[in-house]
Amino acid sequence: MQTLQRYSRNNAVGIGYDYDNFSGDISPWNTFSVYVRTTTKWTGSLIGRVAQSSRFDNTGTLFELDAYPSLGKNAYAYFNIGGSGASFFPNFSIGASIYYSLPKSWEIEEGYRYLKFSDATNIYTASLGKYLGNWGLNLIS
């Protein structure tokens, strides 16, 4: 019940920490993040996030903004913009996806991501998902 109440709030602030350990000569990655979430009529959930990470013996900060506007009864969108001066994060990124709910708890998604490192990376996404109780299963291409 507490988890459901937390997700239903219009405004939230949170922190996170990720530790990634690798075998071989790669030193562990440490990432701290903080986010602020609110809800607006036009953007749906609007989330601002700042992540500070140590990777490859360097430190860098990533700034991101996500929005999840409603597109009607059975659809919603995802938009992202972000950037960083760190070599291991994209200098600039944008992304967008459209999600459509199907009968019997199925969902499809199609989207695009642009990541600008020293060279540009273009990613096209598509997924088919199924919700089973508290679980979500996703087939991603």
What characteristics describe this protein?
mainly beta; 5% helix; Porin; 141 residues
Describe it for me?
- The structure is a single chain.
- The protein is mainly beta.
- The protein has one domain (2-140): Porin (Beta Barrel), CATH 2.40.160.
- 5% of the residues lie in helices and 67% in strands.
- It has one helix at residues 2-8, and strands at residues 12-20, 29-40, 44-55, 58-68, 75-84, 92-102, 106-116, 120-132, 135-140.
- The chain has a 9-stranded antiparallel β-sheet with strand order 1-2-3-4-5-6-7-8-9, with no helix packed on it.
- A hairpin with an 8-residue loop joins strand 1 (12-20) and strand 2 (29-40).
- The longest helix has 7 residues, at 2-8.
- It is globular, with a radius of gyration of 17 Å.
- 3% of the residues are buried.
- The model has no long low-confidence stretch (mean pLDDT 92).
What is the secondary structure topology, with strand pairs?
Layout: H1 2-8, E1 12-20, E2 29-40, E3 44-55, E4 58-68, E5 75-84, E6 92-102, E7 106-116, E8 120-132, E9 135-140
Antiparallel strand pairs: 1-2, 2-3, 3-4, 4-5, 5-6, 6-7, 7-8, 8-9
